[in-house]
Amino acid sequence: MTDQLTGSAATTAWRTEDRIRARRAAIAGGVGTLIEYYDFSLYGYLAIVMAPLFFPSSDPAIALLSALAVFGTAYLMRPLGGIVFGHIGDRLGRKKALLATLVCMGLGSMAMGFLPTHAQAGIWATVLLVVVRMVQGFSAGGEVGGSATFISESAPRHLKATYGAFTPLGSTMGFAMAAAVAGTVSALTTDAQLESWGWRVPFLLALPLTLLCLWARTRVEETHGEDADSGPVQAPVVAVFRRQPLALLQSVGISLACNGTAYIGLTYMSIHLMKSLGYERTPVYWIATAVIGVVALAMPLGGMLADRIGRLRFTVISLAGFAIITYPAMAVMHHSLWIAAIAYLLIMVNTVGTQVGSYTLMPLLFDKDVRFTGVAMGWNLGVVIAGGTAPFVAVWLVEKTGNVLSPAVFVIVAAVIGLISVAGVARRSKVAQEQLG
After folding, report:
1. What digits encode the pLDDT tens for the residues 221-257?
2. What's the pLDDT at 428?
3. Which of 215, 327, 348, 370 gives the lowest tally of CB atoms within 10 Å of its CB?
4. In this predicted model, what pLDDT tens digit does every residue of 105-139 receive, in sequence order?
């Protein structure tokens, strides 16, 4: 069959106004996702600082595991956020849903910056921390699915990956920006200042960033309802489970692989370099910034490559890369910080293909009237299973096995699950022929 998933179909006439519309959608989606993931990932980078402030313990490992458990708790709210914002997006419009997710995340991050510590409020500090993280998780549950859906519907068939790459560009650059801000604050403050008030500064920057993104998102055109054969369904989440259970299952597998592999590098690797290998905090933050920044900037190139060689093929190559490279790369990180940085980059470069492929493929698996909900549900269920748990499981594996390389096994298992899921998508000729417009 002619696999339209590869994007090899002949290009069609494309008007100037269509280009402007697709460009605005890509920028608004990417910038919004950047801000959302900057806000959301800050906690992961500052967990090693915040752990004793909110979870005082005589054992630093217990405090860190507690902080990372809260990091994972936020992900439990993501499926609920996906359902709620998916309902808004499929019933009332993509634009309304994306504006709502942004406001919700911005308010949550501002609240994080004003939280009292355990020394100031006792157990209530921990309770408030969990509540705020759950608000952030709820917001993030609607962001990625909405951004990927919105950009996909605004882009032509032959450039879906090229424009779709702006979603992972934004999300990955958000992690890089969070690492950069954490590194800057760490470099400009003493340990005592960082633990006293410095950790709050990155969260309080959410306000100006949120306002900037709101401006960008108010300028885009709505895609909801175009070319629809009928009105919106009354309950999109029910329709997804009833009409497209296989698409949902495959999207969960793709998301699990994409997030399980990426989050080891995005959230755990800095902890690994500092805690397991003993490198200093500030240079590790800057290495994370550089590696994740390079990967983020490579996303548009990855999108163009995916549209040329095939989105499925590009995804398979990258998943195989994670499975093959992660263990040996982690094995050499102890030699020096420079070798660790290069090994870190070799691992993370594979996320270009997994993220570009995932963000492009998943919207194409679902009918338009339930697409926002389907993508959000599939993505968030995969994130809950393997994304939010990644740093916790990685630290737990090291603590239980005594082997600092054990997190690589987690990555390999996630990559194999992704390969199985992508193989299932490749066999769906009906989807390839009918759904990928």
Report:
1. 776 665 444 556 778 889 999 988 999 999 999 999 9
2. 61
3. 215
4. 888 888 988 999 888 988 898 889 888 888 888 98
Give the pair of three-digit tokens for residue 5. 């998933």
227, 2 contact by CB (below 8 A): no
CB 250 within 8 A of CB 421: yes
> 68 is written with which tokens?
């990372």
Separation CA 422–CA 367 (nearest Å):
19
Q: Crossing angle of helices 123-154/166-188, nearest 10°?
A: 150
- The owner of tokens 């990091």 is 71
Which residues lie closer than 8 Å to 23 by C-beta, 6 or more apart?
163
pLDDT at res. 1: 37
- One-letter amino acid for residue 42 of the chain: L
**CB-CB contact of 432 with 365 (8 Å):** no
Question: Mapping DSSP to helix (H, G, I), strand (E, B) and coil, where does residue 278 land?
Answer: coil
- Written as six digits, the tokens of 10 are 């002949």
C-alpha–C-alpha distance, residues 194 and 176, integer Å: 20
Task: Give the chain's residues under pLDDT 70.
Answer: 1-16, 223-232, 427-437
Q: What is the amino acid identity at position 90?
A: D
Cβ atoms 333, 295 nearer than 8 A = no
The whole-angstrom distance between residue 401's C-alpha and the CA centroid of its chain comes to: 28
